[in-house]
Amino acid sequence: MKLYDLFEDAPADITANNKANEIAHKFADWFMPLNEVTPLADIPGIRYGGNSQMKLAFFDAKTFGVDAPNLHIGFAWTREGAPTDLRGSMYRVRFDGNPETQYIVVNVLSKDSMNDVDLMYSVRWNTFIHELTHYFDFSRGTFDKSKYKLAGDYYNDPTELNAHFQQGLYEIMREISSKSERTQKTVSHALNGDFYDFLGWAKSHMPKSFHLELNDTNKKKFDRRLYKLWQYLRANQKQTEEPIEQ
Fold it and tell me: What is the C-alpha separation between 7 and 188, in angstroms, rounded?
């Protein structure tokens, strides 16, 4: 089965998004109280890694009570504080003599943070969703990303298509659950107008360059996926508005 066929309906998309969100919050719930007073370098269970460009500091998911095989979550920053546009990444590595691939999901910080506290206030939640989506997809099978070199090729990679969708979906669901009256007016217009109202609103939660670089085939697939989400959200909204029979 091809990757873009894995999520054929909106409930499956939302379930996957909720799963990534749950893992990210479990990490935060464990990490934040520790890091309020304890620098990153002194938190028990920390591990280190990296390459010629990046330094990594991360924790095994089992450390914070998540049963996700071979998953690690943490932070990264460039060596020597070099500027970068990178917000997050997922590294596939092997270490400790373990033959199984390990997946390290990181939020990229602006500087070396080994001696810092309160790091969770610097992270981007939708980046965690994006990179955890990569973890789900790559742990299902092997995908060769080495052939995607140009920007358009990168965005048309099925794994990036899925990760950007899930990243945007996180922001969409966050607005839907917002208690702000102004936000709810925007949400109501997007859900209760026609599909193009929803399409424009949904795409505003994703990088503009992402849409510009999609090829025609993937634009149709992406829009069809958003159409299914719009139908589901509208139906669910109407369902919740109907009076419950006693």
Answer: 25
Domain ranges across the chain: 17-126, 144-239
> What pTM did the predictor assign?
0.88
Contact 128, 98 (CB under 8 A): no
Q: What is the dihedral of CA 215, 220, 221, 227, to 10 degrees?
A: 140
The residue whose two tokens read 């969409």 is: 172
CB 93 within 8 A of CB 50: no
Strands 54-60 and 71-78 turn out to be antiparallel
pLDDT in the model for residue 245: 35
Distance CA 111, CA 100 (A): 31
Residues in the chain predicted with pLDDT less than 70, given as ranges, are 1-8, 141-152, 238-246
First to last CA, the chain: 45
User: Could you tell me which residues come within 8 angstroms of residue 96 by beta carbon, excluding any fewer than 6 positions away?
Assistant: none
Task: Round the average pLDDT of the chain to a whole number and report it.
Answer: 88
